[in-house]
Predict the 3D structure of the following.
Amino acid sequence: MSFFVFVLLTIAVAAAAFVQGSVGIGFALIMAPIFALVDAQYLPVTLLILMLPLNFLVAWREREAIDFSGAKWITVGRFVGTFIGMAVLVAITVRQLEIAVGVFTVLAAIVALVAPPFSPARTSSMGVGLFTGVTETATGIGGPPLALLYQHAPGPVLRSTVAVCFLVGEIISLAVLAIADQVRSDQLLAAAYLVPAVFFGSALSRLAHARLNGGAVRLAVLVFSIASGLFLVLKG
């Protein structure tokens, strides 16, 4: 990783952490296409590692609002989906991974934009967890289905519950990836370099999350994600 690339990634990671800390989603949607453009070898491990401190901080900040019942069923589905996602990751090439990241980014963003409202229930929570386990383990992207599930909940409930589900799911995914020998030293080193940017962006979101127009920021993230995803599909 060159110094110029490192600076660009640092800025992008800080901005993505700020967005997710403010509205509940956005980090993976922003960073997965960027990592894929820089070097798809960083996916999904570096992205998953960077999300660990981010989601811990968000969950702890608004821990009183966590929907533990919904998080429990999402995690059950997520556990099963992780193994399917691992099989997908092992089976595809780097070029196919770029295309997969692009396709999942576009589909997830479109679903989050147009899907009708519904309330979280056991079946829907397990289904979302299953889908998230597959896509996040394979590509690093799993936020929009979770945000869709809680899109009509109060902001603190959405942010804290999604963060808890991410945190548990990322630990599961990284453990499975490590067992399958899919974790490399260059991925760990890149994550170590970029972690300070995560803390910086998260700290900024702590100051701004109650003041931002969450709907406008969420729309901007999803539009950016669709454009990035389409570019990756064309590149792949």
User: Anything to note?
Assistant: The chain has a mean pLDDT of 86. The CA atoms of residues 59 and 160 lie 4 Å apart. Residues 3-235 form one domain. The chain has one domain: 3-235.
